[in-house]
Amino acid sequence: MSHVPELAVKNLHVAVEGKEILKGLSLEVRKGEIHALMGPNGSGKSTLANTLMGYPRYEVTSGEILFKGKSVLEMEADERSRAGLFMAFQYPVAIPGVSVANFLRTALNARRAVQDANGTGAMPVGKGIPPKEFRALLREKMALLHMDESVAGRYLNDGFSGGEKKRAEILQMAILKPEIAILDETDSGLDIDALRVVAEGVNALVGPDLGVLIITHYQRILNYVKPHFVHVMVDGQIQISGGPELALKLESLGYDWLREGKEVTTP
Ligand SMILES: Nc1ncnc2c1ncn2[C@@H]1O[C@H](COP(=O)(O)OP(=O)(O)OP(=O)(O)O)[C@@H](O)[C@H]1O
Ligand SMILES: [Mg+2]
């Protein structure tokens, strides 16, 4: 594959409230690829995800983030999202007063408006998705994720259980059809059936038009959503990358062997 990677992170340094968290991280994700990002608590995985999405607290002190060949560093979070970058949050927040359906319709219309401007959308410029078409789309995707239809009318994440929130995140991804999706611990807090449903939902979306970065602590979800690459982050950098076997090795050995390796190589 020689085309420009949809997501290219180059020697990224990021500080949060003056403290350096990411210390020279490089990573490329192409459409059609599934990458898993693992690593101990506090190593900077969510910091990377939040920085990719453009949250203002995360200050890029050096390095570059390219999406489809263009720097996103000057783009606001919503602009990145409309362009086709998506993130499912580790801790989704409630939006009281905004129903799931309204939230998704607004987000979809915003995303499609950008696609139309680029000449890739299926909609006449300036028109939102027709309500009937949207309801059908929503129904289809909710069925895919085994979600009860009544959820569509509830306020987003308001009073949702942990597992319901994670499902709502994947529903959003299914509706928005991003080009690159970052899933930050989408598997955490899911019961075994919910994990399978969510993983199948992700698998149904995976294909040549989508690249995925799955942040996880557990090999379990990788049994369902099979990664092509596994990266391990330690102390703000990717310490080692490999294939799916690397996740299995971590499952049995933990992270100590990596940290020990680091001590040997650090002067
Ligand atoms: N807003 C913030 N203010 C201060 N420190 C922060 C902030 N955000 C992140 N950090 C620090 O950055 C480090 C990396 O945090 P991050 O959330 O990226 O880790 P993580 O790899 O996602 O961990 P986990 O596996 O527990 O989710 C931590 O030491 C954390 O305390
Ligand atoms: Mg995290």
From TrEMBL:
Origin: domain of life:
Bacteria
Q: Which Gene3D superfamilies match?
A: P-loop containing nucleotide triphosphate hydrolases
Record InterPro entries: AAA+_ATPase (IPR003593), ABC_transporter-like_ATP-bd (IPR003439), ABC_transporter-like_CS (IPR017871), FeS-cluster_ATPase_SufC (IPR010230), P-loop_NTPase (IPR027417)
One MF annotation (Gene Ontology) recorded for this entry? ATP hydrolysis activity
Sorted keywords for this record are: ATP-binding, Nucleotide-binding
SUPFAM superfamilies xrefs: P-loop containing nucleoside triphosphate hydrolases
- ABC transporter domain: residues covered: 7-260
Sorted alphabetically, which Pfam families does this protein's record hold?
A: ABC_tran
What the record says about family reads: Belongs to the ABC transporter superfamily. Ycf16 family.
- Known NCBIfam families for this protein? sufC
The name of this protein is: Fe-S cluster assembly ATPase SufC
Gene this chain is encoded by: sufC
